[in-house]
Predict the structure.
Amino acid sequence: MSDFYPWRKAPEADFAVIGCPISHSLSPKMHAAAFAELGLESSYVAIEVQVGEVAEGLDHLQSLGYRGVNVTVPHKEDAFDWCQDASDIAVKLCVCNTIDLRRNRGTNTDVVGFSRSLEGHQFTGKKALVLGAGGSARSIIYSLELDGWEVTLWNRTASRADRLVKQFGFSASVSSVPSLASFDLIVNSTSASLGGNRLPVDWTEASKSALAYDLAYGDGLTPFLIDADRLGVAVQDGRRMLMEQGAAAFEFWWDETAPREVMMAALL
Ligand code: NDP
């Protein structure tokens, strides 16, 4: 758990992560470790911003002299709307998770962060199932399609999955049932794990060579990964993606290579 501040009581600092809820975020710990490693005299705090207050919150942090923010659930679309300038990838997906407040410029480092978080895995095929159709699902699907994966999408609210695919012109197919059979990669991009909830999936259907991947992270395995692990399926939580998207954010703010190993160590 991180200490956090409501945005109206934000302290003097240089960088922040904004979201709601925000107390679970490990970003302050990770970025503080990076700053210390490189001798950068900067601070990074967690700021709670309620739904509907993103523009006001960002204006306020900017007026206090904050240089940059990361944006997490559920504010990535509102953050994109606030930016006056954005990278091509943020414009394509209409979400940004990283802003340079000095330039009012946003970007999306989730796409590259997710892709890099899969490096080193040996997959037998390239069929992926993505569960969830929220703000992060669009970055995950885009990242997978750029990397040549064939994607199937399932969401609790089916109409939202259909809309997502149409809106962004993805080639992903939409499934009405979350069947795990025949996928090499099964990604939970829902926020179910944040509330300790389970998805209606049957891990006995999954291939033993698949990777179960939950974007969420916490102390120990998430409920999604506990069930996969029990059935002998390899598991990965969201910390490596958190590190990779954070490293890309760091490099967006600073003209320096991020100290990835130190950032990862801070998360473990
Ligand atoms: P959103 O709020 O935009 O979307 C939430 C999604 O989860 C929707 O598809 C929603 O379905 C679904 N959902 C929520 N609760 C349940 C449930 N109990 N059962 C089934 N489906 C459910 O969230 P984001 O997409 O922004 O984030 C999703 C998760 O990804 C969060 O846990 C977040 O922390 C994590 N994340 C991690 C990152 C990392 O670096 N590791 C980066 C980005 C995100 P419906 O449409 O039916 O409501």
About this structure: Residues 113-237 form a domain with the Rossmann fold fold (CATH 3.40.50.720). The mean pLDDT is 96. Residues 208 and 231 are 8 Å apart (CA to CA). The radius of gyration is 18 Å.
